[in-house]
Amino acid sequence: MRRPVYAFAALALLCLLLSGAALLLAVHYDNVQQAAGQREVARLQTAVLASCAFAADLGTVPLPPEPKPSKLGVQLVADSRAQWRKLGCPGSLPVPSGFARWAAYYHLPED
To answer: Which of 54, 92, 53, 60 is nearest to 78 (CA)?
Structure first.
């Protein structure tokens, strides 16, 4: 008569142990995924800052007053400045000498 009671108790204990193990594994998996997400965010942030440095380098190139720079050259400076701004780069980007004049000449955005 006691055998069914022990069997039920053993099954109930087994169910509790398995549900506890499943909960622990779910928490562990969530922590692993969160750590992987944080590493990915850090990697992407590094890539964005590298893009900021590149855009700042091109976006501050001075343009000569004479001879007239090509539209492509002025477009590279204008697009790099726009990229720097849209990436949300820290700091400020000084306007290079001659840029405002040639951007207006080629009808490009000045900033």
So the answer is: 60
Task: Round to whole Å and give the CA distance between 69 and 86.
Answer: 25
- Summarize pLDDT for 22-75 with one digit per residue, the tens: 888 888 888 888 888 899 999 999 999 999 999 999 999 999 988 999 999 999
What is the arithmetic mean of pLDDT over 3-31? 86
Domain boundaries, the chain: 2-105
Q: Mark 13-45 as b/e (b = at least 16 C-beta within 10 Å).
A: eeeeeeeeeeeeeeeeeeeeeeeeeeeeeeeee
The pTM of the whole model exceeds 0.70: no
Cis status, amide bond into 67, omega within 30 of 0: yes
10 φ/ψ angles, rounded to the nearest 5 degrees: -65, -40
* Sequence letter at residue 3: R
Residue recorded with tokens 């800052």 = 49
- Residue 20 CA to residue 64 CA, distance in Å, equals 72
